[in-house]
Amino acid sequence: MTAIPLGHLLVLGAILFSIGLVGVMTRRNVLVLLMSIELMLNAVNLTLVAFSRYHGWTEGHVLAFFIIAVAAAEAAVGLAMVLAVFRLKGTVWIDDLKLLKR
């Protein structure tokens, strides 16, 4: 079984991070914004695990596990906030949520 070269994994991580960054910068839907942040976190996890595997360390895998746990908590809290704002305002568009007054 052949291993995937480190450069290929880093390029894939950079592409995924760039797609997530473009999604954060251009989209106005809060749900798409959360998905773009998740994509960026997964790109960081990919590069972290690739470097730790390349160097033979286990710390990168442990750190990636904690990042996944934090991303899951962020998704749960973010979706709860989106649901609460949707019930209050009736929209999930960022432009309509600039003023969070009742």
Task: Describe the protein.
The protein is mainly α and 102 residues long. The chain has one domain (6-97): Helix Hairpins, CATH 1.10.287. The chain contains 3 helices and no strands. Helix 1 (6-26) runs antiparallel to helix 2. It is elongated and about 55 Å long.
What is the strand and helix layout of this fold?
Layout: H1 6-26, H2 30-55, H3 59-89
Helix pairs in contact: 1-2, 2-3
Summarize the structure.
By secondary structure, the protein is mainly alpha-helical. It contains three helices and no strands.
CATH class: Mainly Alpha
Largest sheet: none
- The end-to-end distance, rounded to whole angstroms, is 60 Å
Order of helices and strands: HHH
Report the portion of residues in β strands. under 5%
- Structural category is mainly alpha
Oligomer description: single chain
- Which regions are unreliable across 5 or more consecutive residues at pLDDT < 50? none
Overall form: elongated
Radius of gyration: 17 Å
Number of structural units classed as domains = 1
| Strand count | 0
Tally the helices: what do you get?
3
CATH topology: Helix Hairpins
CATH structural architecture? Orthogonal Bundle
What fraction, in percent, of the residue positions are helical?
over 70%
Overall average residue pLDDT: 89
